[in-house]
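>> received
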Amino acid sequence: MNKSGLFFNVLGSLIALSWLAVPAVKAQDADSLLRSMDTLSKSEPVQAVFKATRIVLSHSTETQKKHDLDLRIRHHFGDIGGRFGSAHTLYGLDVASDLFIGLDYGVTDDFTVAVGRSKQDETFNFSGKYKLLKQQDTGMPVNLTLLAQMGWVAREPFNENEFTSYADRFSWFFQGLISRKLTSRLSLQVMPGYLIRQVSMEPGDPRNLFVLGFAGRMKLTKRLSFVADYTLVNGLSRQPDNLANAYYDPLGVGLEIETGGHIFSLNFMNSEYILENNFIPNTKKSWGKGGVRFGFTISRNFSLFKSKDPGKQSKIY
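>> returned
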């Protein structure tokens, strides 16, 4: 065979091999794309954005796992300093400004119902909380939880003109909770909300209040976290200059301690009261005037119908 014939034979073989290789390359590309899509479809929700369903004063985006029951006891003491504090009240420990006992139950992993009772005005609260969106490793960047809460004042009226209609005993609070776990240690949250009241304490105070809250959690150790929340009330629907009494924006900070099935929180806040229906419109104490107080929260989680699947266990506690 001459050189030109050998050349054309080699060239023909290369062309044939290239035609055979093209489908294989395309198959590998398609396979890689399918694997990539499969990885995206299996993106897992980010767990433990917050450690509990509450932060300090405010709710977090967390909900109870299905069939989990949370027993929560919260206590606010009196002023640490100022006119009503200091040593003669043992820095507020002699005085209980509010006490709350409540139960949260997970109907599903994303829907929680709750009932509780606050000492302030003998207020009963009933609430529902639904997690609409979940932050994922890839894809959804935030969590979105919707909260609806009703407050009912059960005490006897102080005078015959206080509750002219039975509807005056009720208030409603609606809030959207938007959070994101930025790192393994830091989570942040923003909370627009709307409070509806039948009556207000004075004529210049709007019955309905739009509020905007901010909150965060910083994990310090495996079982210890710093938490804080702040609710902006003044300057939105309410203008303080129009009011005879001074009202302040609620601010709370605390340490959150996880002890197995318990969450124990040590908190400091200027709000006398515990429920949103009470502390949003009626915080009359100031951090700058000694109105800060100590409080604590004890939370115990029970799994009523424990699943054998480890993936179904509560991820909050």
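>> The radius of gyration is 28 Å.
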